[in-house]
Amino acid sequence: VNGGNVFITDQHSVFIYDLNSFKLLKKLGKKGEGPREFKYRPKINFTKDKLVLSDLFKIIIYSKKDYTFIREIKLHTYTDRVSPVENGFVLKTTPVINGTEYIRFMLVDLNLKKIRILLDEPNDPKIRKQYLMAYTHCRSWSNRIYIGQPRKGFFLDVFDGEGEKLYHIEKKFNKLKYDKKHQKIGKIYQTDEILT
User: What integer is the mean pLDDT of 1-6?
Assistant: First the structure.
């Protein structure tokens, strides 16, 4: 929900509905690999004046006012998440460094030129075996970048739109006990039928 509208994504499109009447206002994207098409399910992000849609290999930017097309950017590497900031994007990629897969959050400008790496951490293959998936994640809002690392606990780093670290939030809490019941649920959750 944003600006009085509801945004719903299906496999290859985003549907925009009026929040009050639930009237369809616009459909963006369709299945494909051409201009304004998505090969994978698009993710939805906003800046103060733009709607930013992305899949694993492209970013499509629309005006938030009337959803007119602004720009399409092809990504040159598999990118799991795109978080827009005022003058660029934070890209989540998974490079392999010295034989180890990493989770990387990299700040780039509007032309995808690297500004700086905000986080590089080894990917933990054991995470997929847990029901409560503690993935490192990144979101942006109001030209701030928030990187949470739940494997470390309540752990959040906050950066400005230029990638300068502003502050860190960490809170202590009692961890939930992970027992055989959770392991069974986790195995069900990992099946192909659930993940696709």
Answer: 87
Q: Compute the mean pLDDT over every residue in the chain, rounded to the nearest whole number.
A: 86
pLDDT digits (tens, 9 = 90+) for 133-146: 567 889 998 889 99
- What phi and psi, each to the nearest 5 degrees, are found at residue 189? -65, -30
Rounded CA separation 171/154 (Å): 5
Strands (E), the chain: 5-9, 14-18, 24-28, 43-46, 50-54, 58-63, 69-74, 81-85, 88-93, 96-97, 100-109, 114-122, 137-141, 144-148, 154-160, 165-171
Cα dihedral 6, 140, 196, 26 sign: positive
- Determine the average pLDDT of the residues in 23-38: 95
Query: What's the CA gap between 106 and 86, in Å, rounded?
Result: 15
Sign of CA dihedral 160, 165, 170, 176: positive
